[in-house]
Amino acid sequence: MCGIVGYVGKHKVKDILLDGLKELEYRGYDSAGIAVLQEDNFSLYKAVGKLDNLVQKTADFNPEGFAIGIGHTRWATHGKPTELNAHPHLGESSYVVHNGIIENYQEIKKRLQAEGVRFLSQTDTEVIVHLFEHHLKSEPTPFDAFKKTLGELDGAYAILLVTKSLPDTIFFAKNGSPMIIGLAEENEKYFASSDAPLIGHAKEVVYLGDGDYGYVSPNELKIFDYNNNSVKPTLATLPTSKLSAQKEGFRFFMEKEVYEQSAVISDTFIGRIQDDGIVFEELDPALFDGINEVKFCACGTSYHAALASSYLFERYAKIRTSVEIASELRYKEPLLLKDTLFVVISQSGETADTLETLKMAKKAGLKTLVICNVDNSSMVRLADASILTRAGIEKGVASTKAFATQMSVLWMLSLSIAEQRSTLTTEEIKAQIKALRSVPSCVQVTDELHEKIRRLSKRYLHGHGFFFIGRDVFYPLALEGALKLKEITYLHAEGYPSGEMKHGPIAMADPELFTIALMPKGLLYDKTKSNVEELSARDSTICAISPVEFDKADDFIKTHSHDHYMLEFFEMMVVLQLLAMEISVRLGNDVDMPRNLAKSVTVE
């Protein structure tokens, strides 16, 4: 999740680039940068943190007249959020910005280093500009060098590259990452990762397809396809609403964020999943020395992620694990022992109750770790170590992709500790890694699934409440499903362990009680099925979510069979998110901004 902008023209290039990045800041706010080429001279500015830091750095930079410029706002994948790792990346006489993943960058980097090329950053992006300049020495034109560079890159990318060799030209390429060209009067050309930065500037746009590449100058726009055939640009008109443009065609930010989960989980995995193990470069292995317990502390959705992962930590890492609600831990005079690793989880890194428990743990002398979505947040600054989830900005109040990336990090972390403690064999670790690599495909939303849930949602607009039930890790997922429904539909919902039904809650069962049953094939299916049958016998209305047909279900959402129960977990997570959203839509509620709630709870 990163944002790109570009400009060719004679108006205020700095303001155009910074304004464009402001519209894209929701795509990444670890760092930002711009490069401007004017009269054969480059001006480069980078800043860590939010875009305001870059604005302050460029306060005295006010170029006038014709220039070309590129800009980028970054969400860190390869390399930590530092100025050296921020884009644009430079060669001897060229600059590049890039979104996506260059999968073979290590191979290219080693080859170039052997030829004497010096790299300044830890990123995959930097190989692009050095590879381009390598080919520039032997190819007849800069564009030929750019084409040859693209031919050696594997992965997904959106690229803008500028070079002193052609000081009025921007080279571009798109493959699997969004890129739009905007056209305006006076031969101005614009680039952006979404429509929003172009509104008010460009009158028409070209939506590039995968494999497209080419160049723009004041008098030219050349596009070629994957087969190197010249393509006539297809012009489209822009939407008029910037808010609508940020939603990228989705009805709500929540819907967009549900659909983004496949991409952001892939970002979460980058550099961490290796062929033979899990690597968190940001963690010192000594963090786990002398640790006999992991204590998680969080609120809301993050608490559910902690609760689900506690099963994984005890099952795989064989380490004692406890989970606390932050607002409770603050006032219970807890025993905080120094052989405990204290782990807080927060989307924002500013959640007041969770932050206070982190301070308590620090004061008690515990080692501390934060799992968070926002670098430079209060928790990240305070904790001994941090793991960023890389979900990108989440605008919908009801958390979706933040939960998905938290679970992804926690699953990986449980395996990393298992490796250190030798509680899983090499073959078992490899099987887990194989499952992890399948998560992004498991959370992709198909038209068939979404339409099935949309049609089903009309049956669940009344009644006196919902039970969401599941066993093992699917119990915390049931809690999360119930929370999603409560947050955006305002209907009463509770999450329960399936085996708890007979201990009281089943007294409420009748046709107006809706039971959402999580019935994974790969984990305790028969036990869960027996509990659901008990509810069915009391006339509760059953909606079963399972890969196995269940004849006592009133409604059935079929999921896929998987080799690993956690893949069922992630697929069912998406089903619950969509179900809550579609019920909310039918009730006419504000999906993104439900009543009484805020995105980041910074008060008690």
Report what the structure shows.
35% of the residues lie in helices and 24% in strands. The chain has 604 residues and is α/β, with parallel strands linked by helices. The strands form 5 sheets. Strands 3-2-4-1-10-9-11-15 form an 8-stranded antiparallel β-sheet, with helices on one face. β21 (367-372), α12 (378-382) and β22 (385-388) form a beta-alpha-beta unit.
Descriptive tags:
604 residues, Glutamine Phosphoribosylpyrophosphate, subunit 1, domain 1, Rossmann fold, 8-stranded antiparallel beta sheet, 7-stranded antiparallel beta sheet, 19 helices, 27 strands, globular
Radius of gyration: 26 Å
Query: What's the overall average pLDDT, rounded?
Result: 92
Percentage of residues in DSSP E strands: 15-25%
Q: What kind of oligomer do you see?
A: single chain
Figure out the total of helices: 19
Largest sheet: 8 strands, antiparallel
Number of domain modules: 3
Distance between the termini: 31 Å
